[in-house]
Request: fold
Amino acid sequence: MSDVLLSAEGLVKHYAVRRQFLGGAARQLRAVDGVSFTLARREVLGVVGESGCGKSTIGRMLVNLIEPTTGRVVFDGIDVTALDKVALRKLRRRMQFVFQDPYSSLNPRLTIERIVGEPLQIHDLCDAAEVMERTAAMLRKVGLGADHMRRYPHELSGGQRQRVGIARALISTPELVVADEPVSALDVSIQAQVLNLLAELRQEMQLSMIMISHNMAVIQHSCDRIAVMYLGQLVEIASADEIVMAPAHPYTAALVSAVPVPDPTARRQRIILQGDVPSPIDPPAGCRFHTRCPHAGIQCAVETPGLREVRSNHWVSCHRSEEIYGS
Amino acid sequence: MAEAGPLPFQPSAFVEAWGSLRRHKGALIGAVILLAIIVMALCAQWIAPYDPFAQIPWEGRRGPLTHFDGSGRFVLLGTDHLGRDLLSRIIYASRVTLIVSFTAVVISGFIGVVLGVAAGYYGRWVDAVCMRLVDIFLAFPFELLALSVVAVTGPSLPVVVAVMALRIWVVYARVVRGATLAVKEQDYVQAAIALGASQLRIVLVHVLPNVLTPAIVIATLYVGRVILIESALSFLGIGVPASTPTWGGILGDGRSYLDTAWWIAFFPGLAIMITVLSVNLLGDWVRDYLDPRIQA
Reply:
């Protein structure tokens, strides 16, 4: 058993978009453009980036809800992208997904009991009596009582619904959970509760997790390692501490500087990026970030930087990283 | 709805439905009337005061509440142009009318929902084939279709039902396809895929229950429409055999006597209205009852 549970190898997702009615050849929207990383067992990897940078697309490709245009996802030595339908369905017991929107991710016509128990039935893991028992136990684990079992999703609050979503994802004892913005739809006061719940369950059930968020504070709080994305590509990937304390990419530095510090006396320099994110239909040549980068040089507009290891286990895709941040 | 407690008491589905029905007065009235009409249709031969086919030409077109000294008949709703007792005819007519309208609506609903869900869910060629089929049926003049079918088979009850079903399934298919397209993009369908659910399970558990609402609405609307379409067919002579009384048929007969004998058209029309109204009342409730979000 290797230490690597999941690896993404050169994931690419392009969508064809038409310019106008009868308007020439279809162009490609490069939602994700060549992303590779690995996830160790029992590790939590955060994927952070602005909206539209392709992080959700990556999440969905990892569990094959979206098929990658090219590239592979290897889960525990199995090439997920090459599996036939039946084998893929079986494998899904071991890799689960938590959705962003707790209002649309639960079928409004099913009771909580049926929603949470469904994975057990789908994979035929136990008989009806045990389904009920395990459902009740799982709901208790996520902090919901047995009196919620016969209710319908619309009778629960957003936080409770998200707990139901988590219970559904975990009841089949998966090894990998991909959580796509698990708290961004919740009230701030509820966010911490749900994040702590995820952290507890991760310990208890020895989960490996990919947590996707646009919120650096959320990612920082709950992840071992952080991958920063910009316009469909990884710009930096390193341990959470390194990313926060010593970012080695100008974009990461800007993101980190935007995290509010809960100390009114602290002075921290905010890096304000100029301009908007360029369109993923027509990304800039060279380094994709050079149009907004405060440190961009001539080389950056011409040559595309690849990920390279600037410190041990700290990978950056920037020509001038050492120049700017030292090594 | 039972809720509190660790293992709440779950009454059987039937008891629960009855409890909800009792709380909804409109639906209850609809159900009672509909039940009465069905009983009337079943027991027509015992309820009808006179033979609905007995023609007494010299007693034709007499108004409601007429007492005939000659035959000793008392006609509550009057007589038609051939002197037949209108009340008895309406009672007998309920049989064919109910059978035609309900079976046509149910059969077409089944076909339409199945094809609509298939088209919406599977997309691609399934969608293309189903929707072109719908286009063809919509573009084809219904009367022409009915005429050609009846010309080949001759008028009979099953043929009329089949022709109606051919006419209506497209409505279900179109609407249900649209609803399916919307539901398919919902996260709970994506979630079911991520859980590893089979296609069949996704369609039956997650898609179908969420697209039935518009289908139920169409069904309740078309019960009334079918009764009228059937009368149009009868008028063209391609409906059920002319000797069989139907509400639409009597209504069609009465049309020519509207200025001299309004009751011939009025009472079958009233029967149609009451039936359609009760079906709608009941249909509204069924729709709401099946939606847990509205039950509370």
Observations:
- The two ends of chain B are 8 Å apart (CA to CA).
